[in-house]
Amino acid sequence: MIKALRIFLLMLFITAAGFLYKVMYNGYNVSYFSYIFIQGLSVNPSDGTIAKDQANSNKVTAEDILSGGNSIIFLETGDRIQLPSLVLCAIESAARVYPNRSVVFLIKSLNHTNSEDQEKRFIDHYPTLSSLNNVYIFPLVMEDILNKTPLFDWYKKINTTLESHWIHVSSDGCRLALIWKYGGIYMDTDIISMRPIPHLNFLAGESNLYSSNGVFGFASQHTFTWTGMENFVKNYNGNAWGNQGPHLFTRVLKMICTLPNFNNTEDIMCGNITFLNPQRFYPIPYPAWRRYYEVWTKLPTFNQSYALHLWNYMNRDRKTMEPGSNTLVEHLYQQYCPSTYVALQKNGSIYI
């Protein structure tokens, strides 16, 4: 009996010693353990995300999630509540492609919602999103987002009622500020993710010498995003669509680098920024955007692409994905946002 007890104590000592060795020498982050004990939340040490069930029960804020520095960020700066299926497909596809990263959706129409029950009802309104464990929905509070950035004073002075492109301009500003503060990847809500983007600091080439701002990623406090916010204010023109968006990104990029034309499907390096080939997100250029809503004899593989931008701004015809149409966009829904597709196919609706 005593011999067995000694063996047990010896094994316990060896196990404890091994654990302490890992903590001291193998790179365990002490602040990670402190965070668990202090906050009472379950944290994934590989990516800094907070378990969703714990987050909900502890009233975690958007900043709590975003501060992990590894989120995929979507914005809705308009007042609409009934979101198009493409928005839900974009978010679902990102959540599936990046299962170990938080997907954060900030919505302006939740800005004046004071009741947590009302927010929960809004989230439950979209069952295809509420069932995804790494998707978080929060109110978009522009003043908080722009605070302590070069955009804050501009925002406090501007008369938004006189702005002809305010939904787009406000989104342009918020995405820069959020990526500056927290890092991560920003995506427009008409981008369907297909495979992970393997770059930390990147811009998406829309064509030769021209950058998109519909998808980009940086580490927090990167020079590009700060310079972008300064240029936003210095060269502000709310009447010119894109002046604070893709035109701004292109201006700043050309300030940093002299860019050659793209060679085949190769990317271009600009310091520590990867300027990604248009094939990565724009294999179908904007003049041909209707091709997404057409039937193809042979479906493209998009093997060189990380995601597809469906050019919703160009979609003045309000074309949508229709189950049974056999269009390219239907096949994309089936493969990359199957829950959204099934909801539309079975119920004819993505809402409850």
From TrEMBL:
GO CC list: Golgi membrane
Keywords: Glycosyltransferase, Golgi apparatus, Membrane, Transferase, Transmembrane, Transmembrane helix
Membrane topology: Single-pass type II membrane protein
TM segment ranges: 7-25
GO biological process, one term: protein O-linked glycosylation
Annotated InterPro entries: A1-4-GlycosylTfrase_dom, Glycosyltransf_32, GlycoTrfase_DXD_sugar-bd_CS, Nucleotide-diphossugar_trans
Domain named Alpha 1,4-glycosyltransferase: residues: 218-342
Protein name per the record: Alpha 1,4-glycosyltransferase domain-containing protein
